[in-house]
Write a structure and sequence with these properties.
The complex is a heterodimer of chains A (179) and B (387).
Chain A (H helix, E strand, L loop, with lengths): L5 E4 L7 E4 L10 E7 L2 H7 L4 H18 L5 H8 L3 E5 L5 E5 L4 E6 L5 E2 L44 E4 L4 H4 L7
Antiparallel strand pairs in A: 1-2, 3-6, 4-5, 6-7
Chain B lengths: L1 E4 L6 H7 L6 E2 L2 E2 L5 E5 L1 H26 L3 H6 L7 H9 L6 E7 L7 E6 L6 H18 L12 H13 L6 E5 L4 H16 L4 E5 L4 E3 L4 E2 L8 E4 L3 H6 L12 E3 L11 H9 L9 E3 L11 E5 L9 E3 L5 E3 L9 E5 L5 E2 L2 E10 L2 E10 L9 E3 L1 E3 L2
Parallel strand pairs in B: 4-22, 7-8, 7-11, 11-12
Antiparallel strand pairs in B: 1-4, 2-3, 5-6, 5-19, 9-10, 13-17, 14-15, 14-17, 15-16, 18-19, 19-20, 20-21
Helix pairs in contact in B: 6-7
Classes of the chains: A alpha+beta (179), B alpha+beta (387).
Chain lengths: 179, 387
């Protein structure tokens, strides 16, 4: 197949989009319905799926979120995410703080009991990046911003802004410039 | 490769609205046009488009690695001297890039010819990656396209891979910036931002005009947070002439596209590619134009280094017809490229935009125009692979 297997938009447009390519050897199940909610309550009130499914899918999204970012104490979390931090207890009983979920999505697959959610993706497994090895191109972990795996995230740095409006005016003077 | 006239989906406008594709019609004229589509074979796609795209991309990467080691190149490309180190360092450090698009002339016969590179601020991304893809899926589902039809379009999948890769290494908010109130650019930025968020990256939109600068010479957002990483849909050559450009070398920000893209977003690169690879089957002869005011001989096209969307392109066909597109890019140097007419399908001319995402050929979007010069009014027409 020469095309993307699935196309998903989580935030753009008025409804979340998740479509799996049909036909071709690699086709997966097609979603016949895509639901997005801010929280469990909203999901239950909508009544399209059972209360259990709402809770289960929310927990799954939360778990994916926690795998992606978690902190041992509130202050570390807050330095990165501000007041978005929520306590989270793992299945093995560890107490973490994680950034709150802004929403979760359920895609009900035709004839399947599988559900998809657009949680924080986990790249996991086998993919080593599209960038081919090339002399002189290996150093991009070694600079500010690029922490590499396992580096504790740094909080946003605040700085006094002296002036604004020093970018963007060469473009405005041109009638067309997009590529 | 054939152009097929076909009926539109009756509900595509409604679908476009739901999917955030608001610029499908521009100033009353269609931009998305599915009253026709192109049909290619898998062999045409793989041998004539995908492989040459990867080969041309490798030649481009080779050109960058030469240019950062030889000041003559930077000079010829008219990159302002104060930014030579900035550009150089960004390549030598290995700053990753997201994407680029090359425009190819191809009609199913003979080798595809490279017209231009759009390697810094390419647009028409979302309509290619998403709306075109959904068009194919619905066509198969509704029986207007054969069951086994496919599309050369893994743009979304490859962008997701790139963002996952970046997300695994970048510990910073990525700001996404475009010029305020330009709806088409905003859609491109929103789309990339959506993918970045799906990959778990933290993102923040900022209008290019709102970027601030701190006492320490770092760029800041509207919350006075230091901008550590930023995607800008705004060309490097404009950045270099803006007031805040003087802070670039010291601002310590991660840029997408990276500064080394200044070398490839510049039509001077076409002349350098020809110099390095004369008679390459996918290149057209191109030279720096030493006499841009002189009359253009037959069989040549004159292009400003920094023109976009066909602006200020002057063309003298082999038959002696003279064409010129107006535009704002009257200053700066020019290149001359051998005239090679756009393929004609009936009364329309089409141009193939071939995407490179994270160093891989990733798919195509076809634009149609009634003129030999493809302008910003060119319509986006979908394609299918059918064997």
């Amino acid at each position: 197949m020469k095309r993307s297997r699935t196309v998903q938009l989580a935030f753009m447009g008025t409804v979340p989009l998740l479509v799996t390519a049909c036909g071709g050897p690699a086709a997966g199940p097609r979603p016949d319905e895509r639901l997005a909610y801010q929280d469990v309550q909203q999901c239950i009130q909508d009544g399209k799926v059972s209360k259990e499914t709402c809770e289960q899918e929310y927990q799954a999204a939360l778990q994916a979120r926690a795998q992606q970012s978690h902190y041992g104490n509130y202050n570390d979390c807050a330095s990165q995410w501000g007041d978005q931090c929520r306590p989270y207890v793992t299945s093995s009983g560890e107490h973490w703080f994680i950034p709150a979920l802004t929403g979760f999505m359920i895609g009900r697959m035709l004839g399947h009991r599988d559900y998809y959610y657009p949680g924080p993706y986990y790249g996991g497994g086998g993919w080593h990046g599209p960038y081919r090895d090339r002399p002189g191109r290996g150093g991009w972990d070694n600079r500010p911003g690029y922490g590499g795996y396992g580096t504790p995230p740094r909080g946003p740095t605040t700085a006094e802004t002296l002036s604004r409006g020093g970018f963007g005016y060469s473009g405005a003077a041109r009638s067309s410039w997009g590529g | 490769m054939e152009r097929i006239i076909a009926g539109e989906r009756s509900d595509w406008r409604e679908l476009a609205g739901k999917m955030g594709f608001h610029f499908h019609t521009l100033d009353g004229a269609p931009y998305w046009d599915e009253s026709a589509h192109y049909r290619l074979t898998l062999r045409e796609v793989e041998q004539d488009l995908e492989n040459p795209t990867e080969e041309l991309h490798e030649m481009c990467m080779d050109l960058v690695s030469r240019a950062v080691r030889d000041e003559q190149y930077l000079q010829k490309l008219a990159i302002p001297r104060p930014y030579w180190d900035f550009v150089r360092t960004s390549w030598l450090r290995g700053d990753p890039h997201l994407y680029g698009r090359m425009d190819l002339a191809y009609d199913g016969h003979g080798p595809a010819k490279l017209y231009e590179l759009n390697y810094d601020t390419p647009t028409s991304l979302y309509e290619c990656a998403v709306f075109q893809w959904v068009w194919l899926e619905q066509g198969i589902e509704r029986g207007t396209l054969p069951r086994g039809a496919d599309q050369f379009n893994s743009v979304q999948q490859k962008l997701q891979q790139v963002f996952e890769f970046i997300g695994s290494r970048l510990n910073a908010v990525i700001h996404f910036a475009s010029i305020r109130d330009v709806v088409e650019d905003l859609a491109t930025v929103e789309y990339l931002q959506d993918l970045a968020r799906q990959a778990g990256l933290r993102t923040q939109y900022i209008a290019m005009e709102d970027v601030g600068v701190s006492r320490e010479g770092r760029y800041t957002d509207l919350n006075n947070h230091v901008i550590e990483a930023i995607f800008k849909l705004y060309p490097w050559e404009f950045m270099f002439s803006d007031e805040f450009s003087r802070f670039l070398p010291g601002a310590n920000a991660v840029w997408f596209e990276p500064p080394w893209k200044a070398i490839l977003s510049n039509k001077g690169a076409l002349a350098l590619l020809w110099e390095l690879h004369p008679n390459h089957p996918n290149l057209l002869p191109a030279y720096f134009d030493d006499a841009p005011r002189a009359e253009l001989p037959r069989g040549w096209v004159r292009k400003p280094f920094f023109s976009r969307e066909g602006a200020n392109i002057e063309m003298s066909t082999t038959g002696g017809q003279h064409l010129a597109a107006p535009g704002p890019y009257t200053d700066g140097p020019f290149v001359r490229q051998a005239f090679h007419p756009l393929p004609a399908f009936g009364s329309v001319h089409s141009l193939i935009g071939s995407w490179v995402i994270g160093d891989q050929a990733a798919g195509i979007g076809i634009r149609e125009d009634d003129s030999l010069i493809t302008r910003d009014t060119a319509r986006f027409v979908p394609h299918a692979i059918v064997d």
